[in-house]
Write a structure and sequence with these properties.
With 80 residues, this protein is an alpha+beta fold. It is 14% helix and 32% strand. The protein is globular. The mean pLDDT is 95. It binds zinc ion (ZN).
C-alpha cells in the first residue's frame, strides 16, 4: 500500500502539464504560500520554495516525509 498524506481540500490545486497532486504549503516565516507537487513523468516531488530550487531539498518536503533530491516517490493523497 502507498504511504498516505492528508491534505486539506482548500490547499489542493489543479494539475498542470508537468505537475500533479499539487497543493499549497504555508511558509513558517511569512504569509507566503509555496506549491508542492509531483512531476508527472519523472515521479519526483518538488517545492516552489527557494530552498528546493537551490538544493533540491527543503524543510517542507522533509516535514511531510516526502523524499528530496528528485527521488521518484509514489504517495496517496487523501483529501479532507
Ligand atoms: Zn519547500
Amino acid at each position: 500500500m502507498l504511504p498516505a498524506l492528508r491534505i486539506e481540500n482548500s490547499l489542493r490545486l489543479p494539475d498542470n502539464d508537468q505537475w500533479q497532486l499539487r497543493f499549497h504549503v504555508e511558509s513558517e516565516n511569512s504569509n507566503r504560500l509555496y506549491v508542492i507537487a509531483q512531476n508527472k513523468k519523472k515521479r519526483y516531488w518538488a517545492c516552489s520554495c527557494p530552498g528546493w530550487k537551490r538544493h533540491r531539498t527543503c524543510k517542507h518536503l522533509i516535514a511531510l516525509r516526502i523524499p528530496c533530491n528528485e527521488t521518484p516517490y509514489e504517495i496517496n493523497i487523501i483529501n479532507h
